[in-house]
Structure formats: structure tokens, C-alpha cells
Task: inverse folding
């Protein structure tokens, strides 16, 4: 499972409608490589981020992270 660190770029208003999936936020990678989650826009901190259109799950554990939903494994 590829796990990517997210960097917060800015707050957005109005907030994006962010559905939940397995109790985590579900978002789609935008054409510019960023993500919208609630009232935040994030950049993916990786030299090889998921391609635009990829659905990812976002969670917070002191910082924000995501992984492609197709690779998510419950433990």
C-alpha cells in the first residue's frame, strides 16, 4: 500500500463535500495534483503521486496522509 504525506496549501470556502469511506475521507486527485478535503486544499508530497482522477482515502494521524482506495487494506 502506497502512503503519501499531504501538505496543506490553503483553506477553501465554501468547504468541499467530502464523503466517508471506511471511516476515512474519500477524495479524487485533481488535474493539478491537489486534493480537496472539507475546508482544505492539499498537495501530495511525493515525486510520484497518484495520477489525476485516482480516488484516495485521507486520514489524520498528527498530520494528513492518503493512499489510493484500490490499495487500502484493513488490519
Result:
Amino acid at each position: 500500500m502506497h502512503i503519501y504525506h499531504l501538505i496543506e496549501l490553503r483553506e477553501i470556502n465554501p468547504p468541499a463535500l467530502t464523503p466517508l469511506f471506511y471511516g476515512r475521507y474519500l477524495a479524487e486527485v485533481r488535474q493539478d495534483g491537489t486534493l480537496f478535503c472539507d475546508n482544505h486544499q492539499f498537495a501530495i508530497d511525493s515525486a510520484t503521486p497518484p495520477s489525476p482522477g485516482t480516488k484516495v482515502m485521507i486520514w489524520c494521524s498528527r498530520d494528513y496522509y492518503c493512499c489510493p482506495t484500490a490499495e487500502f487494506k484493513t488490519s
Observations:
- The chain is about 0% helix and 50% strand.
- The mean pLDDT is 87.
- The CA atoms of residues 2 and 67 lie 6 Å apart.
- The longest strand covers residues 4-11.
